[in-house]
Amino acid sequence: MPKLHDFRAIFFDVDKTLTNSQRQLSPRLIAALQKLRQYELEAGVCTGRSFPSLRRVVLPLFPDHFFHVISGGGQVINSLGQSLWQKTISDDLVREIVEHATFYNVALHIPYGKFVYANQRMINEYHNKFTDENPLKSPVLPIEKLTYYETPLIPAFGLNDEFVNYLDSQVDINFKIITDYVGIRHCDITARGVNKLTGLQGWSQLTGIPLEKVIGIGDSENDEEFLSNVGFSVAMGNATPYIKSIAKRIIGDTDEDGLAIYLEHIMEGNEL
Q: From CA 19, how far away is CA 139, in angstroms rounded?
């Protein structure tokens, strides 16, 4: 079995991998990530989340010059939020998607800079449920204030069949439906062909580090392409059955500090 020193980078999904089911980062995990800085290893997140929800708590855990794959694989940024690579959905198509979401009463938002611009259902049913203390809460503005719509990511929530059928008819986008632990269907809409692997390939071009030298850790279906193409794949104990089936190692549950315990284990020189 390989060890940590055999690899040059490690990437983490965010929701229910870095964070627990309450969207919190445990003190033990924060300490483990800080210790990881001592190793000659690039570390970052590979997530469907966008910069506004990552900038306050998640990205400061990593050195400023480290790169991250965000927006469902549509963007590579550094820890300061500067975009280094991206694939976007055109302005016209984003406007059309927003119009159909309004018509079919689907909640969505568009990340832009430090804010997300949300339609009314998104504000009422999702953003307003998060307290200001939630580390992943994004600063939100009404979507009507947005003047430029081109974006690498459109998160949509409360999906219905009519809206999904509309998305299926669009050849210039990519999306994968995920059902969360309370039964809400959502998806991250990206440009055609874009997923977490696409972003990781962009990261590899920027850094010169091949994917076989990457450790990847995740828990859900949108991690499939990412975990299937890195050198060593790890599934959380709370991961879906399919993600567990494709991973080379299964670790503990996120609510039981599974990731922190695993990082401590491999930093002690044990096998991955």
A: 19
**The domain defined by 4-85+194-267 carries CATH number 3.40.50.1000:** yes
Q: Map out the domains of the chain as residue ranges.
A: 4-85+194-267, 91-191
**Are the C-beta atoms of 198 and 87 separated by less than 8 Å?**
yes
- 87, 153 in Cβ contact below 8 A? no
- If one counts every other C-beta atom within 10 angstroms of the C-beta of residue 148, the result is 9
The span from the CA of 74 to the CA of 152, in Å, is 5
Burial letters 176-201, b for 16+ CB under 10 A, else e: bebeeeeeebbbbbbbeebbbbbbbb
What's the order of all strands across the beta sheet hosting 83-86? 67-70, 75-78, 83-86
For residue 233 the two structure tokens come to: 């794949």
Tens of pLDDT, residues 108-165: 999 998 899 999 999 888 776 654 556 666 788 999 999 999 999 999 999 999 999 9
Residue type at 47 in one-letter notation: T
Q: Are 141 and 155 in contact (CB under 8 A)?
A: no
pLDDT in tens, 48-82: 999 999 998 899 999 999 999 999 999 999 999 99
Domain pair 4-85+194-267 / 91-191, same fold: no
- Spacing of C-alpha 39 from chain mean position: 24
Q: Would the pTM count as exceeding 0.70?
A: yes
What CATH number should be reported for the domain whose range is 91-191?
Answer: 3.30.1240.10
Number of CB atoms found within 10 A of residue 141's CB: 15
Q: Give the distance, in angstroms, between the CA of residue 199 and the centroid of all CA atoms in the same chain.
A: 11
